[in-house]
Amino acid sequence: DAGITQSPRHKVTETGTPVTLRCHQTENHRYMYWYRQDPGHGLRLIHYSYGVKDTDKGEVSDGYSVSRSKTEDFLLTLESATSSQTSVYFCAISESLLAGGSSYEQYFGPGTRLTVT
Amino acid sequence: LAKTTQPISMDSYEGQEVNITCSHNNIATNDYITWYQQFPSQGPRFIIQGYKTKVTNEVASLFIPADRKSSTLSLPRVSLSDTAVYYCLVTTSGTYKYIFGTGTRLKVLA
Predict the structure, then answer these.
(1) Closest by alpha carbon to B65, among B56, B74, B75, B52?
(2) Choosing among B98, B99, B102, which should be mutated to test the A contact, i.e. which has the most A CBs within 10 A?
(3) Dihedral (CA of A61, A64, A68, A73) sign
(4) Looking at CA atoms only, how far is residue B16 from chain A in angstroms?
(5) Are strands B53-56 and A112-116 parallel, antiparallel or unpaired?
(6) Do B10 and B107 form a contact (C-beta atoms < 8 A)?
(7) Which residues are A87's β-sheet partners?
(8) Beta-strand (E) ranges in A14-111?
(9) A14, A24, B19, B38: which is deepest, by most CB within 10 A?
(10) What is the reported pLDDT for A104?
(11) What residues in B contact A48, CB-CB < 8 Å?
(12) pLDDT for the residue B1
């Protein structure tokens, strides 16, 4: 399995508080992604990174910010958590964006279950 | 990005071959078809990817007709451990955009 860890694995927080989720990889892959998964929606991309300090928005980026100061770490921050951000958050990594080879695969972490009360 | 449509759920029995079909009518020339598998409380896992015709690996086969408007994931001789959600994605080479739909929930019965 790809070396991806997420922390914390579970978190309960109150509305209005800031929350930071961490994704750590040991694969030295260039690309890192944050998704959220909700019933009836599958997985939706929040933000992604294509290198240190290089990030871009996904389809559901409102209310989220990210940072990547090192190749191995990608942080997702909820500046002021809301109940609508209760979800399971997955980090993923990939080596390449070019399809047709094994380096194109996205490897997913174990997920973080976040509950905002 | 091409939208995909796949059945919401399927049931099968152990030892049977399972075929899950996905339609992607608006697939573009530089799009690939990719399938992921997800078990409860885990992240998705890559199964197979193809562009046209047939691709086979140790886990599954992927059949893509000439017009590429649909594809079929074939799982040979499923077991109870194949119970999972299977996602069909159309992915564009060179971009980061993965669009996961709601997937097909496969239940394998004893």
Answers:
(1) B52
(2) B98
(3) negative
(4) 27
(5) unpaired
(6) yes
(7) A114
(8) 19-25, 31-38, 42-51, 54-57, 64-70, 73-78, 87-94, 107-108
(9) B38
(10) 82
(11) 96
(12) 63
Element (H, E) at B108: strand B104-109
Test A42 with B103 for CB contact under 8 angstroms.
yes
Mean local confidence (pLDDT), B67-86: 96
Residues facing B19 on adjacent strands? B74
A109 contacts B96? CB cut-off 8 A: no
Enumerate residue ranges in chain A where pLDDT < 70: 1-2
> What CATH class is the domain B9-109?
mainly beta
Q: Do A107 and B46 touch (CB under 8 A)?
A: yes
Domain range annotation of chain B = 9-109
- Give the domain ranges of chain A: 4-97+107-116
In percent, how much of chain B has pLDDT > 70?
98
Considering the domain delimited by A4-97+107-116, tell me its CATH architecture.
Answer: Sandwich (2.60)
B3, B96, B104: which to substitute to probe chain A, counting the most A Cβ within 10 Å?
Answer: B96
Q: What is the Cβ-side half-sphere exposure of residue A95, based on CA atoms within 13 angstroms?
A: 11
